[in-house]
Design goal:
mainly beta; four-stranded antiparallel beta sheet; 1 helix; globular
Length: 182
């Protein structure tokens, strides 16, 4: 959701873009996007809401320009080594600019939404983090859940996962929640 717009990932039905009518509390569809045969599994609307990030099928990452929500425009389609499943796209943006996407084999990839058009930034954290519980932007870093805790990464992090270190929530207990900033 961004402002009065609601973005709904509808699997094989694609992405619905709706406006929430404040008087009736009804969702009014104003736009739609499909990419057959790829199911739209996750959607995020970070930053100023110009772009939405989509997980399409098991291995495609898409960025749509929704400045005109009635005519969403595909501005980036990317696929890396590995699968996208679970909750593997960042909520929010680092520095109001960068989003991360985690492919289960090749690691965390950074995307620059302020470049024209949005593009892969060239930055990769190549560890197999196993982040099914998600990632968020916090204080200029990506907080990515993994291995019973989380890691904090900046865009140019090059140390190994062992050098970065996993911060455990409670030593010896698994973390099964989705991170949220309150």
């Amino acid at each position: 959701m961004h402002g009065d717009r609601v973005y709904i990932a509808q699997s094989a039905g694609g992405l619905s873009i709706c406006r929430l009518d404040e008087e009736s509390d009804e969702l009014i569809q104003i736009g739609h996007f499909e990419m057959p045969p790829h199911a739209i599994r996750q959607v995020e609307a970070p930053g100023d809401g110009r772009y939405v990030l989509l997980q399409a099928g098991a291995g495609r990452f898409l960025i749509l320009d929704v400045i005109d929500p009635t005519q969403p425009e595909l501005v980036l389609q990317d696929s890396r080594h590995g699968l996208l499943y679970g909750d593997q796209m960042m909520r929010g943006l680092v520095d109001d600019r960068y989003a991360t996407v985690f492919w289960h084999v090749s690691g965390t990839h950074w995307y620059d939404l302020k470049s024209n058009p949005p593009a892969f930034s060239g930055n990769i954290f190549p560890a197999r983090l196993g982040s099914p519980n998600g990632q968020i932007a916090i204080d200029g870093q990506a907080l990515i859940t993994t291995r019973g805790g989380y890691v904090l990464l900046d865009r140019e992090e090059s140390r190994s996962i062992d050098e970065v270190g996993v911060i455990k929530f409670v030593p010896g207990s698994p973390h099964l929640g989705v991170p949220v900033i309150d």
